[in-house]
């Protein structure tokens, strides 16, 4: 599932060809909305909300209000943008779920697992449950801290992935934030001495990466050096040289791979695994 900074960049690409433009082509290739007629409507804006994308359209004739196309990438979805006349190369036609065309180009949504057309007035139905958006104009750190701390016994990695606490963190940042806090992903939230610092660091990381790919957390943009522990199982920790370990965290079926350094990070090991006391990792 993409991180919030990735979705932010997707929204920017869509905005470049859609915002302020009248749709000359519009197809929703999903059963629920296959007959929707959107061509001729003006796109008002494309807004990222956590990991959700909201494409807002002006109202139609009469008293009909504005509409919002709500999409979500999840694990496999992708938006591609093509110049006028350019061949669509984002995947086979059978994978196309949405086509939105203007005089500036065409946005094509491939393998989108969520495609929903609703009244703009009803957007809260699909995004109202989300916590403060780390890249939103109304980011509220105090509210994010309050939500994170509301369940002090919950494992930190799981709490960070819960979009109801703060919106935009995926598995890369969940692992990296645990590392930067010096605790394992299974450490109860209530044992962190400074949740405010954690929330501030989360905002800083996503904001720094919102215009560049890679989810860089180390400050090093060279290939293979952008993250401290994420996807580095069996490789030495960049800070201490201890081999990075991996296991699953979260609640099935939503569990995801966790990565941690048993020397740099204090706290519980995953269930069913030895505690791995700090300072006793396999080092190089």
Walkthrough of the structure:
It contains six helices and ten strands. It has 284 residues and is α+β, with helices and mostly antiparallel strands. It has a four-stranded antiparallel β-sheet with strand order 1-6-7-5, with helices on one face. Helix 3 (141-149) packs across helix 6. The two termini are 33 Å apart. The relative contact order is 0.12. Keywords: DNA damage, DNA repair, DNA-binding, Glycosidase, Hydrolase, Lyase, Metal-binding, Multifunctional enzyme, Zinc, Zinc-finger.
CATH class of the largest domain: Alpha Beta
Low-confidence stretches: 275-284
Would you give the CATH topology of the largest domain? N-terminal domain of MutM-like DNA repair proteins
Number of strands: 10
Report helical residue fraction: 10-25%
CATH architecture of the largest domain: Alpha-Beta Barrel
Counted up, domains total: 2
Main beta sheet strand tally, sense and closure:
4 strands, antiparallel
Count of alpha and pi helical runs: 6
**Approximate strand percentage:** 15-25%
Order of helices and strands: HEEEEEEEEHHHHHEE
Side-by-side strand order of the widest sheet: 1-6-7-5
Return Rg in Å: 21 Å
Domain FPG-type: 228-266
InterPro entries: DNA_glyclase_Znf_dom_DNA_BS (IPR015887), FPG_cat (IPR012319), FPG_N (IPR035937), H2TH_FPG (IPR015886), Nei2_N (IPR044090), Ribosomal_uS13-like_H2TH (IPR010979), Znf_DNA_glyclase/AP_lyase (IPR000214)
Family: Belongs to the FPG family.
Keywords: DNA damage, DNA repair, DNA-binding, Glycosidase, Hydrolase, Lyase, Metal-binding, Multifunctional enzyme, Zinc, Zinc-finger
